[in-house]
Amino acid sequence: MASLLPQEIIDAVLFSLKEDKPTLQSCAMVCREWNSVVRPYLFREIRVNGDDDLYSLLKLIEDAPGIAHVVQVLVVRNLTPSAPPSFLENVAGSWILIRPLPSIYKLYTHLSIFNKVTHLDVRRCTYQAGTLWACITVLPSLQGLIVSDLQSSLMQSGDRGIIGVSTPTSRLTTLVLRRSYALGTFLKLVAQSPWVESIQSLTMDPNCGLPLWARDILIAIGPSLSHLDLCLRSNFWDFDEEEGRMCASHLSVFVISRLILIFSGGERSSTSKLGSSHSQSKYQSQGSNSQIGFIRRRPGLRNH
Fold it and tell me: Which parts of this chain are annotated as the region Disordered (predicted)?
């Protein structure tokens, strides 16, 4: 019966059921033909919530390798450091990465088979910078990356070798980094990678405002960047005038959230809204292609 229906109707019905996993599972069990049709919708998005889910996923992939080729969105949360499994102790000296984070390492060894994943969301994990970088750069179709609420352990000597040979093959267009203590290390890796030529949308929301190195990453990405969303402190505005104008000229959207201005008597916070005429006049860029741009911070800045 299903073969008599136009493929467009089948796709529309299955798409409407994409959030109804029990119904999709029932459809997949009808027959082998239905299973092959439903599988891309059933496994379109996979959420790994902790170490137990990770090992269950790896076991599922071993039993049914084809599943990895239909996953488009992979969400990884709450992976924690643990002792290396006994079968890895003999090689732990060669792979320093697996000593503190065997769970992440096992994910790394399997990620490359997820060749259709376009969006990766990593939250509330503890990692080494080189380990996370190695995991992300093996995804060949990655377009969007969200990294949030991460704690980073110190980089070990083995990480540097991994970083040196890990070059992204994907063209990342969207990068979101939120509430992560190791934001600087990660962005420095981004700045040295081919991704700087393809990132169009960048969101940075660290715990303690943006440090001065943020200027370097924005200048590196500048020519391709069209959407920028930042949580700023006033020292971010200390651009060289020419650098600021060059970076601003490429932006079409510029969002400032929780802007903090430094006054002689302390700190006051304000919110900049793109829709207000005050914000547009105060932050108007001299670049012809942008709505809101960069200005250079001057002594005696006051809130009018």
Answer: 269-290
